[in-house]
Amino acid sequence: MCVACVQASKRAPITTMTNDPSMQKVAVLSDLDARAMKRVEIGDTPILLIRSGDRVLAYEANCPHAGAPLEEGALCSGRLICPWHKGTFDIESGALVEPPPLMPLKRYPVRVDGDDILASAVPMEERAESKPGDERTFAVIGLGAAGAAACSALRQGGFAGRIVVIDREPRTPYDRTALSKFVPSGEMSPDDVPALLPDDFFASESIDVIQAEVQTLDAQAKRIDIGSAPSIHYDAALVATGGVPKRPSLQGGDAKDVAEHIRLLRGRDDARRLVESAVERSHALVLGASFIGLEVAAALRNRDVAVTVVSPGNVPFEKQFGPDIARLVQGLHESHGVTFRMGRHAVAVARNEAGGERRLRVTLDDGAIVECDFIVAGLGIRLATDFIVGVDRNDDGSLNVDASMRVADGLFAAGDIARFDLPIEPGGRIRVEHWRLAQQHARIAAHAMLGSSPKEPFVPFFWTYHFGKNFEYLGHARSWDETVMTGSPEKFEFVALFGEKGKLVAAVGCERSTQMSALAEAMRRTLSVEEAKEIVEAE
């Protein structure tokens, strides 16, 4: 329990009072510790009770993002942190603090009667107050994770003006992380990838969704051109277009009978094509030991697909995890049959005309030949910002933003395309291609569009899934001079703390979700490595 938690538990007793006849006894106050959570059920409705001193609150028990059991998360500084993906909620109101969930927690009536805790399964009705008569138009370009987060935050923040969303794909926003983690393995079909928002969200919130390709965004004129349709004049706009996967540059790779067997992974249709290729006992060549590349490699092994990974690096994830944990990850893959050709890159590909059982012959830079049935490219992205005029772009196409994600007057950027300063790790602007971070950016931008400044630093977080092991990463480290390991790395149960001059800059954990949840909230402030170690060992 953190210091802030202890102080919060000493405040005057408050309970949510109600005369609702549906109230029924669900727990006993004396059975709950002063700072504890308990999962109860009323009929088929799971409810989470949170006790803080003599105060009791009741919320939905499963995270609205992916259904994680919230009682396995952490309570710190008046917040509840989800154990799986570090979604964060205010325990006083259930309000959303950090994604990936995009909706607040449902609240349930609860009261304390003597030592009995009574609650109802009928959720309380709550809605943000909006200001009528708002004539402004806010535009959101791109309806991925960041675009969805921005729309949700704007309406939750009380914006009653026009919101228009423009995306070239005919889709509602969905959890794209599942496309590399669970779809290639067969655990989930592309059509079952969960949506990020309720099905009726855009209609019920009166948000206009336009399927179109943006031709030009003129930052000086505050105008968006979308071909033959009328231009959109905006008061504020958020660009959240991400990027397009890079195709491998291989001699012979453009030949029709070769190109049809090269797979990229960005959307549902890409995932469908990948699954169609991944027949049992086929052989996949994965180009690039990126997080997506290795997640796909692990998932394909679940289908009994042979996998070879070719990458110019030494070991996968060394830049983020350090050499020791990186070797653990590679060893985990090798123990499940993945073959690595590290320190190499592919230079040419051709149809296999030699009569072998595989379709393609791929030549590596050392002359070695790898025969395979299809290629999966995990080589990064090309940023989708060519349509923006009136502001400077960096050489890679990214846009510099300030602490509010502002590029220029009335123009904001989020996600892969944004180059930003990270307060917890100073040293100049960085660009990070992580899904949840894009949502954090978008929420900051949405609040800025509504006139609010960031109130506290945000902590980057991502997770990556391999052969049943979930690795979580907090922070961002350009470099570090100290690694403190807690737990048992050989059992894939650990938290590694990366420090620079005694200060924590990042942490990676495996199968330690509660500890990483507590650390996620604590890292909003500067922590020493020793302080971080105490937090991890206290959970």
From TrEMBL:
One of its GO terms (molecular function) is metal ion binding. Residues 24-119 form the Rieske domain. GO terms for cellular component: cytoplasm. Coiled coil: none annotated. InterPro entries: FAD-oxidoreductase/Apoptosis, FAD/NAD-bd_sf, FAD/NAD-binding_dom, FAD/NAD-linked_Rdtase_dimer_sf, Reductase_C, Rieske_2Fe-2S, Rieske_2Fe-2S_sf. It holds the Pfam family Pyr_redox_2. Keywords: 2Fe-2S, FAD, Flavoprotein, Iron, Iron-sulfur, Metal-binding, Oxidoreductase. This is FAD-dependent pyridine nucleotide-disulfide oxidoreductase. It comes from Caballeronia concitans.
